[in-house]
Every structure is written in C-alpha cells, then in structure tokens.
Write a structure and sequence with these properties.
Number of helices of chain B: 19
Distance between the termini of chain C: 27 Å
Chains: A alpha/beta (about 350), B alpha/beta (about 400), C alpha/beta (about 280)
Low-confidence stretches of chain B: 1-16, 398-406
Order of helices and strands of chain C: EEEEEHEHEHEHEEEEEEEH
Structural class of chain B: alpha/beta
Largest sheet of chain C: 9 strands, mixed
Number of domains of chain B: 3
CATH class of the largest domain in chain B: Alpha Beta
Strand order of the largest sheet of chain C: 11-10-9-12-8-1-6-7-13
CATH class of chain C: Alpha Beta
Number of strands of chain B: 10
CATH architecture of the largest domain in chain B: 3-Layer(aba) Sandwich
Structural class of chain C: alpha/beta
Bound molecules: flavin-adenine dinucleotide, iron/sulfur cluster
CATH topology of the largest domain in chain B: Rossmann fold
Radius of gyration of chain C: 21 Å
CATH topology of chain C: Rossmann fold
Number of helices of chain C: 5
Radius of gyration of chain B: 22 Å
Distance between the termini of chain B: 57 Å
CATH architecture of chain C: 3-Layer(aba) Sandwich
Helix content of chain B: 40-55%
Strand order of the largest sheet of chain B: 2-1-3-4
Shape of chain B: globular
Number of strands of chain C: 15
Oligomer: heterotrimer
Helix content of chain C: 10-25%
Mean pLDDT of chain C: 87
Strand content of chain C: 25-35%
Number of domains of chain C: 1
CATH superfamily of chain C: HUPs
Chain lengths: ~350, ~400, ~280
C-alpha cells in the first residue's frame, strides 16, 4: 500500500469544493453542501467550503452566508481560469496543511479533472461519480454509492486508510442547500503559492453553445410523425427540460426538423440520459438510435405501437395535452424562472 | 450532385490517365471495368434518373475512377446494385460488382463515408449490422419452440438473417415463414442465437476483405453444424450464400423460402384455404428477379391462393423497379423526394390492388416508407409469407406429421 | 517533442454493459459469458490518434491492462493502423482502483519511453470514473486535457477543443501531455483491408508482467488500492426496457412523468455566460 499523506487520526472535518465559474457557484456545490451538512450533523464534524480562484472576495463573502461553518478561500492570479494543474497544485497545498477527513467535489468536467489529479498528488483513494453518500454507522467511514455498466450495477465504495476520503458526486442527485446563516461564517483567505511552471496549460478561448449536437445531448425530446408539425409544443417541452430536439425520419422528411436532428439507423445514434419520444411508432430503423439512451419515455396514442417495447415509461394517450401539462408542471416548479 | 451528371469523357480527361491508378481500378473491379466501352446505355436505365433527375452515370463513374478524378465516389455509394443497367449493357459489364469493387477501392484509400464504419463495427462486435445484442437474436421466435438445427433430425436449416431477427416489422415475416415451413412438413431447425450474419452488409458496402473473413468463418461453422440445405427469409442472404461463398458455398444448397414453398405446392404438400376475393400486386425483389432470374416461385405461391387476383405493375419480373434498399443503401440516407420506393408505391397504387406483396425484408421497410410518403393509405405492404398465412396455409392432407414441432 | 510524434492510446476492454449482472450467491460481479468490446470512447481516442498520424505523421502505440484475452482486442487496434501494442497482464495488477491503475499505466508509459501524447477515452463504460486519465497525467507530472472533441498540433503544442459545462473551450498545452477524448466525437475507422490479415497473427502484442515494470508490487493491484468495495447490488433492471405504463388524465400522467424526469433536469446547470480571452 502506498503511504498515506496523513493518517485518519490526523484528519478532521468535511470539506466541499465550491466550484465557481464567472463569480457564480455551480449548482452541484450547493447540492453537496446540503448533503455534507447532513453528514456533519451525524458525525459532529466541521463543514468547510473550499473556494479557489482570483478576485473572489465578494463571492467568498456570499458563500460564507450559506449553511457551512467556515470558508477557505485560496487565491492566486494563476487561478483566475480553471486549469487542472494550477488548481490541483493550490488545493493540494491547503489540504496537506489543514488535513480534512472528507473532501467532496461535483462530478462536473472541472470537478472530475481536479479530483483525478489531486487524488494522485495526495496518494489517496477517490470514489468517482457517486449517486449517494453516507457515513458507515460503525466506522464512520464515508460510503460512496456508484453505478457501473450503464447504471446496471450499484457498488458502495469506501477508503479505509488514506485521507482525505475523496468523492465526486453526480450533479442533480441531492437537493440544493436551502438554509442560510444569520451571521456570516469566517472566511480564511490563503494566498497560494502557484509557480508559473505549475500552470502549463493556457485557455485560448471559450464559447457558449447555443446547443449541442443530438449525438451528445444529455436530454432529448424526439418528434415523430404524431406531432403533426406542431413543433412549438415540442420546443416548449425541450425548453422546460433544457433538452435538445431530435426527430424521426418522417418528421425530418416533413421539414419539421433538420436532417442533422434525425435519430436512427441512417441518422444519429444518440446516448442521452433521458429521451422523451413524442408520436413515433417505433420502427427499428428509428429505435436503434435510442438503444443506448438512459430513461426512455414514449408518448403515443396507439397502445399497439411498438415504441412501447422500447420504452421505460409508456404513456398511451394523445401527446398534446400530456406534453402541455408537463410543461406547465415544470414552469410552476421553476416559478417561471427559465 | 454534379458527380451524378453523366459527363462525356473529354480529351483533357484522357490525357490525365494515370497507369498506376488504372491498375488499381482494374484490380479493384477484377478487371471488369476494362470491358466498358463508354456507350452510356446503362445511364439511361438507372432508376436514379426517375427520382433525382440525373441518373448514375456509370460510364463516367468508371471513367473518373480510372482517371482518379475526385467525386466519383459519391455516385458509387448511391448505387443500389439493382442490376437494371447490367441487363442492358451490350458488353455484359457486371456494373453492380464494378460499383462494389470501386467501394472497395474507397475503403482501401480511406475515402469511404465515415458513418458506414459504424455498420461494420456493429457487425464486428455484435454480429449484426443493427448493433443489437447477439443474446437477443432469437427473441423473434419467442413461443414458437423452434428446435436447434440437428442434421440427424432436420433436413433444412432455416436461416433468418439479421433484419428478420431484429427488425420488429420483419420479425413477423420470419414467424410467417416458420408457419409456412411447418405447414409444408419440412423438418427444420435454426441456429438460435448462434446464427451468424451472412456478411451481406459488408459485401454490399464494398468491404470485400471483411466479407471474405465472415464467409470463411460461416462456412466453417456450417460445416461443423452439418448444414447441407439452407432456406433463407431474405433474398439478400440467399444471394450471398449462393453466389458469393466461392468453393465453400458448394457444401450446401440454398433456396429462398418462396422457392421452397413453390416446390411444396408442386409436390402437393402445401395448400391454401384462400382469401375472400381480393387483389394483390407483386414487387419483385432485385435479388431474386434480376440477380437470380427467379420470378416464378413467388407467383406460383400467389397463384395457389384461391380468391387472390394478381394485378401486375408495368415494371415487373426482370423489369422490376428497385425499392432502393439494396447495395447497402439501407444504411445510407436518401432524401424523401429521391426514394425509389415512393415511385414504386405510386405504381403499385395505380394497379388498384389491396396488397403490395413482396418477399424481402428490405423491400418491406422501403415500400412501407414509400406508401406513407406517397400517401397511398389503402395499400397494404405485406410479405408473401404473411399473405400465405392469412390465406390459411395448411399442410395438404397427404403430408406426414411435421417433425419440427416436437 | 523529439523527432516524430509518438502517441500512445490506452485501451480498456470492457464487458458489454447489457450482459453483466450480480451473482446473488457470492455478491460479486458476474461477468459470466459477457462478451467484451473495446471501451467505446477508447475507440474514439484511437481514431483521434490515427487521424493525427494521418495528418502529421508519427507512430501510435497501444497500451492495455487486463487478462490475456485482451490480446485479440489489441490486434483490432493494430488492424486499424496502430504500430505497436503492449498488454500489462499479471494477477498482481488485479483488483486495482483508479490510483493503482493509473500508476500501473504510467509506469508502462515510462518504460515504453519517448511518448509525446497519451490519449484515453473520457471514461470507461464499466467504471465510468473518468479519473484514470488525470491520474496518469499526475503520476507522469505532465499536463492533462480532458473531454477533448478535437486535437490539433502546433509547434510542439496541442490545441485541444474540449467540452465544458454549456460550451467549449480551446486549451493550449505543451507536449508531452495526456488527453482524454469525448465519446462519439469522431467515427472510428474500420480495420484496414491489409490490417485485418493481422487479426490472426501471433506475436504482434508485447506482454509485460509486474516484474517488467519499475513499480513496487505493493503499490499496484488490490494491494495498492486505497479504496475497496463495501457492497454490490444490481440496479432495478439491467436488461431491456421497463415498459411501465403510466395512466390517468393527461394532468395525472404529466405529474407522474414530472416526478420521474425532474432528477434528470436538475442535473443540468444554467449555461455559463460567454467569455473570451
Ligand atoms: C433505409 C431506411 C432508413 C431509415 N432510417 C431511419 C432513421 O434513421 N430514423 C428514423 O426515424 N426512421 C428511419 N426510417 C423510417 C422508419 O422505417 C419509419 O418509417 C419511421 O421511423 C417512422 O417515423 P414515425 O414513427 O415518426 O412515424 P409513424 O410511423 O407514422 O408513426 C407516428 C406515430 O404517431 C402516433 N400518433 C399520431 N398522432 C398522435 C398523437 N396526437 N398523440 C400520440 N401519438 C400520436 C401514431 O400512433 C404513430 O404510432 C428508415 C427507413 C428506411 C427504409
Ligand atoms: S452500358 Fe456497359 S458498356 Fe455501356 S457505358 Fe454502361 S457499363 Fe459501359
Ligand atoms: S445497379 Fe441499379 S442503381 Fe446501380 S447503377 Fe445500375 S441501375 Fe443504377
């Protein structure tokens, strides 16, 4: 076994990495704080938020009013833009000084990037992409639930000897922290020592997408012939779900969607986590395109439609009223925020 | 699009001729490209002319391939290998094979369309071009209790093929063929989940090297299994086994199921109780009618169904109009206004028949699509085997009890 | 970068997801007769390497850790156009978590030597941790770029377009570096016509055991893994679709859908504002 950087006896406290971008905290960090607070109540451990960046004093102040006990803010001009190398260098330094017992990050691209590198630098174990967290009632060890094989297998992972116990957590599995503190928690600002050599990667440019191509979309609303050209309804649902729009060949032939949106054998093989299929009959040339999707929901008024053989949730009904009600439900929960 | 327009070979082209290139084209087409005399008869015959304006300019494709001019490849991938042109070529150029040979050249030169690689990978990892798990290959047969082929008990291997195994629509055809064979008292079995892909998608996408590997492996598997007589659901598998397995193919006899049914009818082992007076038109699959001169077996079946009247389309038998699904076109997109099947559906609708009957899973997919694009709502696309079952296909009283049931 | 570009692609052989279950008696993974494949994003990584080779020349080596049955899979990579293949196969490597795995791979990369660019798939379909590529980079002490969509080479540097929350960014990294490649970002080419002949050829894959690597046996495999599995279970359903029928008025149906969908939607994050440097 590789020697741990510090022993379990020397470790204390639960830390959450407060991922930020453009002076805004990532939703997953708020979700993690909520869960971490629950764990800290169980164990009595102190809850620390770790913020890294540059010129973030104002954000650190805002973070201090969240439900946590302390904010550690690591600052350096080279942390202005996220790069795994510089962030890992700076956070490893404070972690080795302050020795948290548990260190949680969001399983976002940045969070995974940082965690993978950091875990090796700290010579500790990392449970990646957890869908649940708990403390073992006896040992007090962190138990991370992870899924493998396309979600078919669930495993619980622990890290006995090495510290910190690191885990990245899938966004969206926990509710965001709601409670606020009356008085701000203390903010400890650490001026990191990041040599330019620790920062070999430069961000040349960044841009926001209007949308991603359907082959990589995480959520898809798919229009079949049954939508009868009413793409407004489909678009409203896509907006509510923050999804991209795909189409069957018939819908593409009709000109309701572009050729690049066609799902299926002669279109795109999609791998979304969620696919809502509206008014498609389920021809094999189409369904091979959603074979690798996570949850498939099918709406079709024909109970015999073969799309139902390929769906997890089957709604045998006229799609329009159901989709409209679903959009309304999302809007009411979001308070019309979108 | 320009690549589809037939351009006469100009003097300038001729000067460009590069010997090395010409040698590669010749090698890729097994020398067949040399026979072309650039008369242009083929171009006038190609069904692309019906739908897309310019037809495939076979002679210019060959010419441009010879000359190494960019753009020939696009037209090469459009060919459905329907064989309509070949039938007219005064120099007997096997045009479909030349097209496949040129595709092979494109694979070698890595200019084959990237998305077609995924079809070959699906065949490699999953053993079928649809990328479905082999463990569900025989799911189409649920409840039918089809025995595993055993040469000690069964005369015939029923080979289902990938499309009829996995495509939900075509699965019904496979089930109907089983009904037909049981009614005819043929002792048969299948290879279950171990049935391999015949290799047609690799061949028809022009990857002959990969096809050869598949064919060799399958021939060995069939030999071990003791297969000597194969009946196929699809004309494409029939063609592949009977014409492209080389010497290895001599170890077994291959028939399309319509040919088996014709024989059973002739021997008095299969009869039909009949349909309430109705009419059908028959779409000849290219891979029976043109590649194997088989136009009578399906018609013998239709003729044996009491109450069914056959209304032929003008383009029928060896003049049939391709559905658009051959030559690997099932894995390539065709814009809605360029699909042969739409034209075909209109021709079928014009006969006034109630059924558009065919006997190939690819034809079924394409024609159902064509019927819906053409808006021919009263026309029902049906496979010959399905129609036979509808017509109450029964074993004739003289037949011995079927062996395949137990 | 010295001389020609030398790329190394890490390939993991994984059982097909649909064919793996949990053995209820022993509560261990039942890979039984599960068929294997090359982890799909690793195929994209290999295609990215071969495309770079097509464009800039150079050499592509393959590296995998796994049992001997991985050899034919590496031959598939060779048939696609890779130049050399290495398999790390030893019981001592078994049971490794990401720390031990990335150390083992990094040790082999050191041994192969002169590697300019290490390419991996973004994550594996069985573990889905996405932590091995950053781990390799950390062990080797070289930069990492993850979730790459496109890679270009410029004067000894790589320009990588990578996916981030709600958009993409272009990173400039010096070589050597580790790049993990996004699944479906390219179309893996099929095996070369000539290459396929090599599928049946022995001796094309170099196999190394733990003794061949300069690594402490206590730092690899199960022994070198700080994490361990505390429990295992099968999720609701692993094979096929659930086909659960939702009934009621349209509003009731919508409500049921809402309950089931909202977790997928919460995971989406508001798109970041456009920024440029
Ligand atoms: C070579 C080839 C390649 C092909 N490639 C592809 C491909 O890549 N992708 C693809 O999608 N297709 C492809 N197809 C076409 C495919 O075979 C089907 O024709 C197509 O997928 C059907 O599209 P659809 O389900 O939208 O239309 P339809 O089959 O017409 O189904 C429409 C469905 O909507 C339902 N419906 C109607 N109104 C409502 C309502 N108000 N509420 C609820 N339900 C309603 C109906 O019950 C029906 O089931 C291909 C075909 C061929 C021949
Ligand atoms: S009909 Fe035959 S000879 Fe004439 S151009 Fe076509 S292929 Fe050549
Ligand atoms: S085989 Fe058919 S599609 Fe191909 S060129 Fe000849 S007529 Fe045209």
């Amino acid at each position: 076994m590789i020697d741990p950087a510090y022993s379990p006896q020397a470790a204390s406290g639960i830390w959450v990495f407060l991922e930020q971008d453009g002076n805004v905290l990532a939703p997953v960090s708020l979700e993690l704080l909520g869960k971490a607070r629950e764990l800290s109540r169980q164990s009595g451990a102190e809850l620390t938020g770790l913020l890294a960046g540059h010129n973030l004093d104002e954000l650190a102040g805002r973070a201090a009013s969240l439900d946590l006990d302390r904010v550690v803010y690591v600052s350096h001009p080279l942390l202005e833009r996220f790069t795994a190398e510089a962030y890992a260098h700076a956070t490893a330094e404070v972690i080795l000084q302050q020795r948290p017992d548990i260190f949680l990050l969001g399983a976002t691209p940045y969070g995974r990037d940082l965690a993978g590198r950091l875990a090796v630098m700290l010579r500790t174990g990392l449970t990646a992409d957890c869908t649940d967290l708990a403390l073992d009632p006896e040992s007090g060890l962190l138990l991370g639930e992870v899924s493998g094989f396309g979600g078919g297998i669930l495993a619980t992972i622990k890290c006995e000897q090495h510290r910190p116990q690191m885990a990245t957590v899938r966004p969206g599995v926990f509710a965001e922290v709601q409670s606020q503190r009356d008085t701000a928690a203390p903010v400890e600002k650490v001026e990191a020592d990041v040599p330019a050599s620790a920062c070999p990667v430069a961000v040349v440019s960044r841009r926001q997408h209007a949308g991603v191509d359907v082959s990589r979309a995480e959520r898809l609303v798919i229009a079949g012939a049954g939508v009868r050209g009413d793409m407004g309804t489909v678009e409203a649902l896509a907006r509510a779900l923050d999804a991209e729009i795909g189409a069957t060949r018939v819908a593409v032939d009709e000109g309701w969607a572009g050729r690049e949106q066609q799902i299926g054998q002669t279109g795109v093989i999609a791998r979304p986590k969620l696919a809502v299929v509206c008014g498609a009959s389920g021809a094999t040339q189409f369904t091979v395109g959603i074979e690798q999707a996570g949850l498939v929901i099918a709406l079709n008024q024909d109970p015999e439609a073969s799309i139902f053989e390929q769906a997890d949730l089957c709604v045998v009904d006229d799609l329009f009223p159901v989709v409209r009600a679903l959009v309304a439900e999302f809007e009411s929960h979001n308070g019309g925020a979108k | 699009m320009t690549a589809l327009v037939d351009r006469p070979a100009t003097a300038a082209n001729v000067i460009l001729l590069d010997d090395d290139r010409w040698d590669r084209v010749l090698a890729a087409t097994h020398g067949e490209a040399a026979a072309c005399y650039q008369c242009g008869t083929c171009t006038a015959t190609c069904p692309w002319g019906l739908v897309a304006g310019p037809s495939i300019g076979v002679r210019s494709v060959i010419r441009e391939a010879q000359l190494g001019i960019d753009g020939w490849a696009e037209a090469v991938w459009r060919c459905t290998t329907c064989g309509a042109c070949e039938a007219r070529c005064p120099h007997q150029v096997p045009i479909g094979e030349v097209m496949l040979g040129l595709r092979g050249l494109a694979w070698r030169e890595r200019t084959a369309p990237g998305e077609l690689s995924s079809v070959l990978w699906d065949m490699h990892w999953d053993g079928n071009p649809w990328g479905r798990p082999p463990s569900t290959r025989s799911a189409w047969a649920a409840g039918l209790d089809i025995p595993r082929f055993d040469p000690g008990i069964h005369t015939t291997l029923l080979y289902i093929g990938c499309t009829a195994s996995y495509d939900r629509r075509a699965q019904k055809v496979a089930r109907a063929v089983v009904g037909l064979m049981r009614a005819g008292g043929v002792p048969f079995g299948t290879l279950g989940d171990d049935e391999p892909c015949c290799g047609d998608p690799a061949r028809s996408l022009g990857n002959d090297a990969y096809f050869e590997r598949i064919a060799a492996a399958n021939a060995a598997q069939f030999k071990v299994a003791g297969v000597t007589d194969i009946v196929t659901v699809s004309p494409h598998c029939y063609d592949t086994f009977s014409s492209h397995y080389g010497a290895a193919g001599d170890q077994f006899q291959v028939r399309h199921y319509s040919q088996l049914a014709r024989d059973l009818i002739a021997e008095g082992k299969l009869t039909f109780s009949g349909l309430e007076a109705t009419s059908a038109t028959f779409h000849d699959p290219c891979y029976l009618a043109r590649h194997h001169d088989e136009t009578e077996a399906p018609r013998a079946m239709l003729a044996a169904i009491p109450g069914l009247e056959l209304a032929e389309m003008e383009r029928s038998r060896s003049e049939t109009l391709c559905c658009g699904g051959g030559g690997g076109r099932m894995w390539m997109e065709t814009p809605a206004d360029e699909r042969f099947a739409t034209a075909r559906a209109r021709e079928a609708a014009a006969t006034g028949a109630a059924y558009l009957v065919t006997t190939c899973p690819h034809c079924i997919s394409c024609l159902e699509d064509g019927v819906s694009v053409a808006g021919a709502r009263d026309l029902k696309v049906i496979d010959l085997a399905e129609l036979a079952m509808l017509a109450g296909c029964v074993s004739a009283p003289t037949t011995s009890p079927e062996a395949s049931h137990d | 970068m010295t001389g020609e570009l030398h790329m190394l692609v890490c390939l993991k052989v994984v059982p097909k997801s649909e064919e793996v279950g949990v053995d209820r008696a022993t509560n261990t993974l039942d890979r039984g007769n599960a068929r294997s494949e090359i982890n799909p994003p690793d195929m994209n990584a290999l295609e990215a390497a071969l495309a770079l080779k097509d464009r800039y020349g150079g050499r592509v080596s393959l590296l995998s850790m796994g049992p001997p049955f991985v050899v034919p899979m590496l031959r598939v990579g060779l048939a696609m156009g890779a130049d050399a293949a290495y398999l790390l196969s030893d019981r001592a490597f078994g049971g490794a978590d990401t720390l031990a795995t990335s150390l083992t791979l990094a040790s082999a990369i050191r041994k192969i030597g002169d590697i300019d660019l290490v390419l991996c798939g973004e994550e594996s379909s069985d573990g889905a941790t996405a932590q091995v590529p950053p781990g390799i980079a950390a062990w080797l002490g070289i930069p990492q770029v993850t979730y790459a969509m496109d890679i270009e080479l410029e004067r000894g540097h790589i320009l990588v377009t990578r996916e981030i929350r709600g958009g993409e960014e272009v990173l400039d990294a010096p070589l050597p570096a580790v790049v993990s490649v996004k699944v479906s970002c390219n179309q893996p080419r099929f095996m070369d016509v000539e290459g396929m002949a090599g599928l049946d050829r022995d001796g094309t894959v170099t196999t190394w055991t733990a003794a061949d690597l300069d690594v402490d046996v206590n730092h690899i495999g199960l022994a070198g893994s700080p994490t361990s599995v505390a429990g295992l279970r099968e999720a609701l359903q692993t094979v096929g679709r659930r086909r659960e029928v939702v009934t009621g008025t349209p509003e009731q149906e919508a409500h049921i859908l809402y309950e089931r969908i909202s977790e997928f939607v919460r995971s989406s994050s508001p798109r970041t504002q456009e920024t440029s440097t």
